[in-house]
Amino acid sequence: MSRQIAFVIAVALAFAGCSPSTETKKPAPAASKQEPVPDVYHVRFDTSKGLIDLEIHRDWAPRGADHFYELVHSGFFDGARFFRVVRDFVVQFGINGDPQTNQLWASGMLADDPVKEHNVKGTLTFAMRGPNTRSTQLFINLSDNRKSLDGHGFAPIGKVTAGMDVVESLYSFYGDMPPMGQGPDPDLIQRQGAPYLESHFPRLDFIKKAVIR
User: Fold this and answer.
1) Superfamily of domain 3-19+35-212
2) What is the tens place of the pLDDT at every residue in 79-107?
């Protein structure tokens, strides 16, 4: 299996547990009408390894940028683990440690954005398992993945502007998720929450607080 095919399958598998196949897809919660999303905004992740600064561009992917803004504003990412860290590949996150909170957001599906920017190193992109399936999980590219992802609908919404060294230092020794490796099972994270990760994968790094700057 080529690395390109393996990558796309792996991203799809990580996202597959977000919405059971027997359930009807629901639209993602709409962004707040009281606070318009800026054309360009900045997000800071205070993580267990240090600070990561992100710059988000609505003109790159407006639906994704608006949804990410609402997720950060709601505190969804606070306490979330970087559950998939594969060196020279991706860092993935976006499953809330409380199953009820996660289900509230993850059951919604976001319409696709056209791919306008490349999935190069440092870009932030929503995970997906097919058309119109973006929800809460995102990844930061650790290498130039444009050949693997651009043609499959993965639309970057922003990029790391500071702290890429922090991103690259996140704990990765558990390996990839099943069946690619021995790391956390995203479906179990969603069903059991933080206790599953704390008992089986205690060394995972996490987001202490995500704030819009």
Assistant:
1) Cyclophilin-like (2.40.100.10)
2) 999 999 999 999 999 999 999 999 999 98
CA distances from 169 to 27, 49, 198 (A): 35, 8, 20
Cβ neighbours, 10 Å, residue 147: 12
Q: Which residue has the tokens 């704390």?
A: 198
Task: Say which amino acid occupies 206.
Answer: F
CB 156 within 8 A of CB 118: yes
How many C-beta neighbours within 10 Å does residue 117 have? 18
Region 207-213: mean pLDDT is: 97
Asked whether residue 64 carries a pLDDT value surpassing 80, the answer given is: yes
The verdict on whether omega for the bond into residue 114 sits within 30 degrees of 0, i.e. cis, is no
Residue at token pair 């709409």: 30
Average pLDDT score over residue span 162-190: 95
Structure tokens at 18: 């977000």
Please report the pLDDT score of residue 16 as a whole number.
40
Return the SS3 of 107. Answer: coil
Residue 96: other Cβ atoms inside 10 A: 26
Confidence of residue 34 (pLDDT cuts 50, 70, 90): low
142 vs 29: CA distance, rounded Å:
29
Are 123 and 158 in contact by the 8 Å Cβ rule? The answer is: yes
Two tokens at 10?
């792996």
The residue type found at 30 is: A
The neighbouring-strand residues paired with 160 are: 54
Q: What was the pLDDT predicted at 144?
A: 98
